[in-house]
């Protein structure tokens, strides 16, 4: 959406989500480049955030791990 961006969050139970950065989608594809290590995290989620990203998620995830 205009003035919004997608933000990737790394997840681990009992911890606050950790931002792995923002990204855009082009022609239905997204590439997320991050300097964060994925070690120690068990999942990831994507939210729609204000342009430039947020220090913490402000919306429900648009993409999240499936619940067992």
Topology of helices and strands:
Elements: E1 4-11, E2 18-23, E3 25-26, E4 29-30, E5 43-50
Keywords:
68 residues, mainly beta, three-stranded antiparallel β-sheet, two-stranded antiparallel ribbon, 5 strands, globular
Structure in words:
- The model has no long low-confidence stretch (mean pLDDT 92).
- The strands form 2 sheets. This protein has a 3-stranded antiparallel sheet with strand order 2-1-5, with no helix packed on it. A two-stranded antiparallel ribbon has the order 3-4.
- It has 68 residues and is mainly beta.
- It is built from no helices and 5 strands.
- Helices cover 0% and strands 38% of the residues.
- The protein is globular.
Number of strands: 5
Q: What's the main sheet like?
A: 3 strands, antiparallel
- The portion of residues assigned to helices is under 10%
Q: What characteristic shape results from the CA principal axes?
A: globular
* Rg (C-alpha, Å): 12 Å
Report strand %.
Answer: 35-45%
Number of helices: 0
Question: Order of strands across the biggest sheet?
Answer: 2-1-5
| Poorly predicted residue ranges | none
Order of helices and strands: EEEEE
Mean pLDDT metric: 92
Compact overview of the structure:
The chain is mostly beta strands. The protein has strands at residues 4-11, 18-23, 25-26, 29-30, 43-50.
């Amino acid at each position: 959406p205009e003035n919004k961006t997608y933000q990737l969050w790394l997840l681990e139970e009992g911890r606050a989500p950790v931002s792995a950065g923002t990204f855009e989608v082009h022609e239905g594809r997204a590439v997320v480049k991050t300097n964060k290590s994925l070690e120690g995290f068990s999942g990831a989620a994507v939210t729609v955030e204000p342009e430039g990203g947020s220090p913490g998620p402000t919306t429900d995830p648009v993409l999240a791990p499936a619940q067992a």
